Automatic annotation (TrEMBL), chain B:
This is Chemotaxis protein CheW. PROSITE patterns: CHEW (PS50851). GO terms for cellular component: cytosol. Residues 17-161 form the CheW-like domain. Pfam families: CheW. It comes from mine drainage metagenome. The keyword Transport does not apply. It is found in: Cytoplasm. Keywords: Cytoplasm. The keyword Disulfide bond does not apply. Residues 167-197 are annotated as: Disordered. Its main location: cytoplasm. GO terms for biological process: chemotaxis; signal transduction.
Length: 680, 197
């Protein structure tokens, strides 16, 4: 049977990338000097499964590189080599190189052979240097029990693969062949589960095998052969009953096998039987493979669209159902209520499919912080919390870069050098805290540090210097912090390659705004600063306030609404007879009359008869004058650009319960239009 | 399929015959390629689009997608018609520089689907000044009536791309006293204007 392996490439790449992430995380947790065995095992397993996979798919460069890596890891695992900072760095670099290689393979680009061979050389040098003087004694110790001149042990291996084994690119024949290269193998097939020929799926595996392995081979070594099939099969390794009892069963690479195991191998049978369930489990959790399937995003989006249509149709039916009279109308309405409930559940479930925990983004920070701190000579502790907070995949993908900017800023500008921290009476190590949490219908992501805080006087001086602020203007703290979001603004005393070119914060704000979110700053001198990003859960749906202007209904995104109020004519001042402003919490806000901006006939032109919705966008506030507020609802965002084009002041459209279209207002755009008009 | 549709339109003369949907507008009969017609539906209230040209009435929900509605009467300056329950919207797909778009066209009434022999299609006389007739594919007669065959890509597609680009500007320019001001505040599209000044 031949299977076209290329169809599995994509799955291999994705799994490998995930596995590398796990490996990197484990590496970062690894304590130099006192490594935790389970962490090293995790790292080893990743390297091993990538090696196995790449060999199967014929990616020989990756296989060769991971082989060297595995050799080094094996030394660490057996404890014959200590985990030094040098080794830990080397391993992290290997993760980078592997990632680059996999990316190159995925894009069918040539790999950077020089970089790979350099690092592989380094790996081998480390192995050779640390190992050579020690090799002889270290190897001899574990070898003794094996090398005893007795009859080699016979292992009975029961290998019962799950049906999907073949589909995951495993081939039992390969495994047996590899085993055959290590020892003498007798294979017995168990075909009793084989279905009738007509029902056989060629990609399913229905067979099981019992193997008798004779030769100088440890249980560990047998297990390693099956390592890549782990999780896809039941594997039971035990000593064949014919063996004389009383011998230590599995001489592992460790000099003394007994303490390395949890239970003392009193009888040969007990140890192997007790162990198999424990091991696959740990592999599974390490690689995060818990009964999930991969689905392309397009398929989910299609599903989302269809559900969106259903919601609209359902709303239409509900409205219609309310108008029916007659004996069975009550029944109809009951059915419609049930339908509505089910629809809502369906919509939520489909949305959840697109949701991923924010740990996907957070996971890149430990490494980044470690490297940055190293380079800047600062001591930094990174705290992560709320990693399990879920948000939409699209939002997740776009929030990564802004967060990187913020964390970099915290490390570069926020956290002081250890000496300065000591002088200020703080601990030498600064803390950067990344936190995610649900707040109402939104997600709040906070980046905070316990550094020096924003330097208000320097920000203000800089702004005056650049002419962004008049020399005699008095600004509130919040206004001063707002200045850092202006394009081209940077207060770093010297420009580093990390930050300080002033291309940071304005881009951060723009990216966050594109996601329909906002960013706020808080700071306390000497105590640290805090950046809070508020994001919608998803991009496809927005919480909106419907407002009426004449016969038209517009949706104002709830996130941009500050307050709604009714004004008395006396509260309004006309500047130069045209521009209308009113006082709102100490600020003067201008009024945008929606009816005149959008050219519709309003119900009223008198300010005291309508309502003013105070909205905020781009850090500025204005009052939108509308006829009336209607309801608040979640609306599905539809593109206007698909069939029409962009409209200034409108970010999209949605379909209301009665099937009609309502435009969603783009608040920053409106403010921009209004200011253009005021300037003209 | 879309490719063959295009060929069908552009290589009209080489084909032997074509099916055309005819409709009435201000007493004249017009025709469009039947393959471009998505559906014909009755009138329902549209949502107005701010800053849109007068002949773009607004947008409608067409099974979940938002479709702009164009009044051909107003496009041809035939005066505004009353929109009633029997007013008809023909939804067509139009090829624009930005890709395929669906658009609804309001007409007085739909007449018929006719087979036209290509030899019957005559080019439009070059009467209109300034290329006003370049959206006319040709003229044909069916039982004493003259049918004006429209090239909807030229007629509406060009409008659409213009609308998308300058929806805001047309509105501003129409206002007295509001002209493109190079001294506008620096953020936004003021930069190129400043260069020109």
């Amino acid at each position: 049977m031949t299977v076209d392996l290329t169809q599995f490439h994509e799955a291999f790449f994705e799994e490998s990338f995930e596995a590398l992430d796990a490996m990197e995380a484990a590496l970062l947790k690894l304590d130099v000097g006192a490594p935790e065995p389970e962490l090293i095992n995790t790292i080893f397993r990743v390297a091993h499964s990538i090696k196995g996979g790449s060999a199967t798919f014929g990616f020989s460069e990756i296989a060769s590189f991971t082989h060297s890596l595995e050799t080094l890891l094996d030394e660490l695992r057996s404890g014959t080599m200590p985990v030094t900072p040098e080794v830990s760095d080397l391993l992290l670099k290997s993760v980078d190189v592997l990632r680059a290689m996999l990316r190159a393979m995925q894009a069918t680009r040539p790999i950077d052979a020089q970089r790979v061979s350099d690092l592989q050389f380094d790996l081998e040098v480390v192995i050779a240097r640390k190992n050579a003087p020690l090799a002889a004694p270290a190897r001899e110790a574990p070898a003794t029990p094996c090398a005893a001149d007795e009859t080699p042990p016979v292992w009975q291996v029961r290998f019962r693969p799950y049906r999907e084994l073949l589909a995951r690119g495993n081939d039992p024949l390969r495994l047996f062949r590899e085993l055959g290269g290590l020892a003498e193998v007798r294979v017995q097939i168990d075909a009793q589960n084989l279905p009738p020929l007509a029902d056989i799926q060629p990609q399913d595996c229905h067979l099981a095998w019992t193997l008798e392995v004779a030769g100088r081979i440890s249980e560990e070594e047998i297990r390693q052969v099956f390592d890549w099939a782990e999780g896809d099969c039941e594997l039971l390794i035990q000593r064949a009953p014919a063996e004389p009892p009383g011998r230590a069963p599995a001489p592992t690479a460790a000099p003394n096998p007994a303490p390395a195991r949890d239970d003392t191998p009193a009888t040969p049978a007990s140890t192997p039987v007790g162990e198999p369930p424990a091991k696959p489990e740990s592999t599974l959790s390490a690689l995060g493979d818990s009964g999930s399937i991969r689905v392309s995003v397009e398929k989910i989006d299609e599903l989302m669209n269809t559900v969106g249509e259903l919601v609209i149709t359902q709303a239409m039916l509900s409205q219609l159902g309310g108008q029916f009279e007659g004996p069975r109308a009550e029944q109809l309405r009951a059915g419609l209520v049930q339908l509505e409930r089910n629809m809502r559940e369906l919509q939520e479930s489909v949305m959840r499919v697109r949701m991923l925990p924010i740990s996907f983004v957070f996971s890149r920070f430990p490494r980044m912080v470690r490297d940055l701190a190293h380079r800047l000579g600062k001591q930094i502790e990174l705290k992560l919390s709320g990693e399990q907070t879920e948000l939409d995949k699209t939002v997740l993908e776009k929030i990564g870069d802004p967060l990187v900017h913020l964390v970099r800023n915290c490390i570069d500008h926020g956290i002081e050098s250890p000496e300065r921290r000591a002088a200020a009476g703080k601990s030498a190590a600064g803390t950067v805290h990344l936190d995610a949490s649900h707040r109402g219908g939104n997600i709040a992501v906070e980046v905070s540090d316990d550094g020096g805080g924003l330097d208000k006087s320097r920000i203000l001086a800089k702004a005056r210097d650049r002419g962004l602020v008049g020399p005699n203007d008095v600004l509130s703290d919040a206004d001063i912090y707002e200045l850092i979001f202006l394009p081209g603004f940077s207060t770093a005393e010297k420009t580093t390659d990390l930050s300080g070119r002033g291309v940071g914060m304005d881009v951060v704000r723009r990216n966050v705004k594109e996601l329909g979110g906002k960013i706020e700053v808080g700071s306390e001198s000497g105590r640290g600063s805090r950046f809070t990003i508020t994001l919608p859960l998803t991009l496809a749906i927005v919480d909106g306030q419907s407002v009426a202007v004449g016969k038209e209904i517009y949706i104002v995104p709830l996130i941009s609404i500050v307050e709604s109020l009714q004004l008395k004519d006396a509260q309004v001042t006309r500047l130069s007879g045209q521009e209308e402003v009113f006082s709102f919490r100490g600020d003067y806000l201008s009024i945008i009359r929606m009816h005149s901006l959008f050219g519709v006939d309003p119900r009223t032109r008198a300010l005291h008869e309508g309502l003013v919705v105070v909205v905020e966008g781009d850090g500025r506030r204005v009052g939108l004058f509308v006829d009336d507020l209607l309801g608040q609802q979640q609306v599905v965002i539809k593109s206007l650009e698909a069939n029409y084009g962009h409209i200034d002041g409108v970010s999209g459209a949605t379909i209301l319960g009665d099937g009609s279209v309502a435009l969603i207002l783009d608040v920053p755009g409106l403010i921009h239009i209004a200011s253009m008009r005021a300037a003209a | 399929m879309p490719a063959s549709m295009n060929n069908h339109l552009e290589a009209a003369v080489s084909e032997e015959s074509r099916q055309v949907l005819t409709f009435v507008l201000g007493g004249e009969t017009y025709g469009v390629d039947i393959l471009r017609v998505q559906e014909i539906r009755g009138w329902s209230a549209v949502t107005k689009i701010p800053h849109a040209p007068a002949h773009v009435l607004g947008v409608l929900n067409l099974r979940g997608s938002i479709v702009p509605i164009v009044d051909l009467r107003m496009r041809f300056a035939l005066g505004r018609a009353e929109y009633t329950g029997i007013t008809v919207i023909i939804v067509m797909s139009v090829v624009t520089p930005a890709g395929r778009r669906d658009i609804g066209v309001v007409v007085d009434g739909v007449s018929d689907v006719v087979d036209l022999d290509c030899t019957e299609i005559k080019p439009a006389p070059e009467l209109g000044a300034g290329g006003a007739t370049d959206y006319i594919l040709g003229l044909a007669s069916i039982t004493d009536r003259m049918v004006v065959l429209l090239d909807i890509d030229r007629l509406i597609g060009r409008d659409l791309s213009a609308m998308a680009g300058a929806a805001g500007e047309t509105h501003d320019a129409a206002r007295p006293g509001v002209t493109a001001d190079p001294a506008a505040p620096p953020p936004g599209p003021g930069a190129p204007a400043a260069d020109a000044a």
